[in-house]
Specification:
The complex is a heterodimer. By secondary structure, chain A is an alpha+beta fold. Chain A has two helices and three strands. In chain A, strand 1 and strand 2 form a beta hairpin. The longest helix of chain A is centred in the middle third of the chain and has 12 residues. Chain B has a two-stranded antiparallel ribbon with strand order 1-2. The radius of gyration of chain B is 22 Å and the shape is globular. Classes of the chains: A alpha+beta, B mainly alpha. Chains A and B meet through strand 2 and helix 1 of A and helix 4, helix 7 and helix 13 of B.
Chain lengths: 96, 331
């Protein structure tokens, strides 16, 4: 599937500020991981959009299939008791 | 995710659903303003329309670097030079975001580049006009990027997720392009008479090509119907063109420059400007490859691609060597 002459595809994740998660920014082609980092710097952080970058080969990501979303996430659907709002606590009870 | 590796379209729809039902569900999702993502089912025509539009858009960004790159070494001050380099670098970046978005539809980068270089794919005909003076750099930022923004803002809400997200990023960066252009024009317009004349001549050159950037009139636009149904396109060519004229005419007035259209009038009753007829024969001539710079632009792209080939190959060979070496160390 992958053309030998074409640089492989990497997915880029950028942490915009300390304390935040890395977030998917986009993708790019690079010969290796180090080049992917440098290209990511030039492509996705030209205006100081980040303090840290992750790159990962796109083919190394395993993703769920949106077509299976119904069955994949079904187990969580009938478990409303996982949310604190499920429980009615009398008004007299404080700090709970 | 912008990953073509993950996003190979399934050749057959699931056996339980027929094509009609899938298309109905797809349209319901579009109507509900849900985003369509790469692995979602989509009509084949939606896919091909998007590949054509996104790749043409990417090619335009890449070719768009050329008329301005021409002036980097001749910018009048270090600040103007730095600004121009930053702008041209942005255009390259925009091309890269858009190629990535197109790749999620199952087409390879190499194939897209090949289509541009062979002349099979189109790019915005605006970039086939020359930039003979420094004022052209101002006029491009103000008018060409201004028209591009007008076209692109609605695309941020396009139904295809990767394209919409790329456009959000692009629009955020594009505003600087337009403002630096207007700032440049303002400086010339407030300068010596010869500088003001230079600004006027650039406006004369770029006004009509900028209006043509919105594409053929609605009565002749062949792709609009489906694109509007699929929420790829939100406004018609003529609507956007009118909006651009209404925004830009007062800006020209502030510069003390004259829009080169003797029929341009404010229409009080309609609340908009009326403007003269566009010479579509010129548009078609440029589109068909007979503009002032078509040959030069493609030749520049081809030679950049060919002269860079050894770099791409060497980087790949180096990466492969490192991989083999690391495997040996690990073993």
């Amino acid at each position: 599937m992958e053309d030998k002459h074409q640089w492989p595809l990497y997915e880029v994740f950028v942490r915009s500020r300390g304390g935040l998660d890395h977030k998917h920014a986009g993708s790019l082609h690079a010969a290796d991981a180090r080049m992917a980092l440098e290209h990511a710097r030039d492509l996705y952080t030209r205006r100081l959009e980040g303090v840290s970058i992750w790159v990962v080969r796109s083919t190394d990501i395993t993703a769920s299939d949106p077509a299976d979303a119904d069955s994949l996430f079904e187990p969580a659907r009938d478990k409303v008791y996982r949310h604190p709002t499920f429980y009615d606590i009398p008004d007299e009870v404080k700090t709970l | 995710m912008y990953t073509q590796g993950l996003d190979v379209p399934s050749p057959e729809p699931p056996a339980t659903l027929d094509g009609g039902l899938l298309e109905k569900r797809f349209l319901e999702r579009v109507d509900a303003e849900e985003k369509i993502e790469p692995k979602d089912w989509m009509p084949e025509r939606y896919r091909t329309t998007l590949i054509r539009q996104i790749s043409q858009h990417a090619h335009s960004e890449i070719v768009g670097m050329l008329p301005e790159g021409n002036w980097i070494t001749r910018a009048p001050t270090l600040l103007r030079k730095s600004i121009l380099i930053a702008k041209v670098q942005d255009e390259g970046g925009h091309g890269a975001y858009l190629y990535s978005a197109a790749e999620t539809l199952g087409v390879s980068r190499d194939h897209l580049v090949e289509q541009l270089l062979s002349g099979k794919a189109k790019y915005s005909s605006i970039f086939n006009y020359p930039t003979p003076t420094w004022a052209d750099i101002g006029a491009i930022g103000w008018l060409v990027d201004g028209a591009a923004i007008m076209n692109q803002i609605p695309l941020c809400r396009c139904s295809y997720g990767p394209y919409a997200r790329a456009m959000v990023r692009i629009c955020r960066e594009e505003s600087f392009h337009q403002r630096q252009g207007y700032d440049l024009m303002l400086q010339l317009a407030r300068g010596h008479t010869s500088q003001k004349r230079m600004a006027q001549e650039a406006l004369d050159r770029w006004w009509w090509p900028a209006l043509m950037m919105f594409g053929p009139p609605d009565s002749e636009s062949t792709h609009s119907g489906d694109s509007q149904r699929w929420k790829i396109k939100r406004f018609s060519n003529d609507e956007l063109r009118q909006k651009f004229v209404d925004f830009t005419v007062p800006q020209a007035k502030f510069l003390g420059l004259t829009v080169p259209d003797p029929l341009l009038r404010w229409n009080e009753a309609a609340g908009r400007h009326d403007f003269g007829p566009i010479d579509w024969s010129e548009f078609n001539r440029v589109l068909k490859g007979n503009g002032p710079c078509n040959t030069e632009r493609l030749a520049a792209r081809r030679s950049a691609h060919e002269e860079g080939a050894w770099v791409r190959e060497a980087a790949m060979a180096y990466a492969e060597k490192q991989r083999v070496r690391n495997e040996k160390v690990a073993a």
